[in-house]
Predict the 3D structure of the following.
Amino acid sequence: MTRLKTTLVRAAVFAGLCAVAVTAAADTLDAQTRKNIETAMRSEAYASLKYLGYAKAARAHGNEKLARLFEESADVEANHHFVREAAALGLPGPDIENISDAIVSEYDENNKMYNSFADQAAQVGDHKTAALFRQIAAEEGDHYQAYKDALMRTDLPATPATKPAAREVKRSAK
Ligand SMILES: [Fe+2]
Ligand SMILES: [Fe+2]
């Protein structure tokens, strides 16, 4: 076996072991710890996108150094903190599972969260924010449909996750 082949085989075995370890760790997580990781991921994702917005503003204001500081922080929040926390949950998983997860998220945003938020805003007379929520709800519906279409494509590899994904589509199909 050539050195390159040996290296590739070792890398594949290592990656496989890592995947097994991550999945095993995610499966055995304490419920509160899992919840805390999800909360932390939301916080990191929010901070990262917010800092990118701040960076854009700082650059527009001529504060290049501040813009770079925000960008560096945003990178750490997204590509180190969020990614490591996601890995602790075993995310991302196989494509078919990721699509299934995305379908559930977009369905909830499309049908539940944004409509509920819009209703609440409208009830207090904030029709501008209500309209924003309803517009975004519609866009989440487009995402939901796109992921559902992707799930139905025949070129996706079949895995055991196909079953829950199919059930979810049936439940939430429009
Ligand atoms: Fe962070
Ligand atoms: Fe979306």
